[in-house]
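Dock nicotinamide-adenine-dinucleotide; give full complex structure.
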Amino acid sequence: MPPSRSGCAAEASVPTPVRQEHRSVFPEPVRSFTRPLVPVKKVDHGEQADIVLPQLFTMNKLNVLMCGTGEYTTGWTGSGASKSDKKIGVVGLTLFDLRRLGKVDKLGMVGVNGSKFPAIRQHLEQNIGGVYKDMDLSFDEFPKGGQINPDAYKEAIDGMSAGDAIIVFTPDPTHYPICMYAIERGIHVLVTKPAVKLLSHHNELIAAAKKHNVVCFVEHHKRFDPAYSDAKAKAANLGEFNFFNAWMSQPKSQLETFRAWAGKDSDISYYLSSHHIDICCWILQGKAVPTRVVASAATGIATSEPYNCVPETEDTITLMVDWQSTSSPTHKGVGVYTASWTAPLKSGVHSAQHWYYMAEKGEVTVDQAHRGYDVTVDDTGKAWYNPFYMKYSPSESGHFDGQRGYGYVSIEKFVDAARSVNAGSTKPEDYDANGLPTIANTVLTTAILNAGRISLDEKRPVGIRKEGDKWVLE
Ligand SMILES: NC(=O)c1ccc[n+]([C@@H]2O[C@H](COP(=O)([O-])OP(=O)(O)OC[C@H]3O[C@@H](n4cnc5c(N)ncnc54)[C@H](O)[C@@H]3O)[C@@H](O)[C@H]2O)c1
């Protein structure tokens, strides 16, 4: 028998809340509360009066397994706290806070090398437990006993129940097998960008998520940046698309953090341009489609001293994409998406990021790196910070205070969606209709990135077209 989904809405007028079945990973029962969505009615049948609750949804707390124990999950990079803007990570901190606020229950974390967990726990105790009040930092770890096991995610997921969730921040080539393993077991999935490297894998995840009726989102947090989402709405009123130009970069020092995989498992376009390609696809959803991609790259810095990345590593990649309007045969646009991980040190920003959108009736310019807020310190000089992404300073009561940061909101939206589907209050496909970064809504982002990689490797333009209901490359 397939495992039952936690907290599904019952068909009857007075449903019995369904409790989640728990096995080894999350052994204790989930605390739940019920939320009547409509007022209680009294129906009089002459002698008998029944209380009718037309519908009652059980909103269970969500159990979440974090896949990956690195910079984005914990802020721990193996050689100490990250030197980037994510010193205490994003995923773990957000989930600990969502547990404090009653949305999340049991947590697990899976990596490859179990011997890292004592240092990770100490890092979290010191920098989260020691800084914010009322944080429960407990989580179950995999692989256990300090073992090394790249397949430990299977054991961790096998211990979960349908309706639980995973959040995946692992190297790009591992996203597809981990996500597919979870989806096939009825587990909701939030996967970091780039969702997968191949368009064929993206198509398979769309189909699997549909078949197993789970929420599958890509963690494109920039869609929740207030400036970006407002700009998207403004761009919608500017008529036919004409030109989009995006730049995103990180300082060369990041190559020390990324050395293990940079140029081997992924490239800078997948790593950084994925953000702005997704924003452009989001703005153009329903307005235009990409038809052709040509890529160019600069090289020589990442492969030299002191970074010594593998010879295939590009420094800066530009993808030039042709777009065709879906309503006007004569309107065509061009998108240029450039990303680099060899930007200068000490430029004052961790990620330089700006874009320009031009359409028939106007233009939009966004500079997300400089937000009218900078700090200058004698020793280190001037730096521009972005508390709109993650705000790490505590509240006046000593609690974590970054609930409005778009890094946090992105994870919370997924947690809310998974709980709502578990409760039977919404269906996974509802989220495709409202502009969220679902696996179905992000397919063209992967199509462009995959086409860009092929264009670089094979030194040719790559076409994108729809075949039936699937996007394919040619
Ligand atoms: N660091 C960032 O700022 C950032 C931001 C957004 C997205 N991402 C994305 O996150 C992913 C990488 O995460 P990170 O930045 O935390 O990297 P990281 O290198 O710091 O950590 C990667 C983690 O993945 C784990 N891992 C590797 N193979 C695994 C497997 N088979 N099963 C379970 N865990 C495995 C490693 O043990 C490690 O803990 C990439 O896809 C990247 O594009 C990173």
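Observed: The first strand starts at residue 32 and ends at 36.
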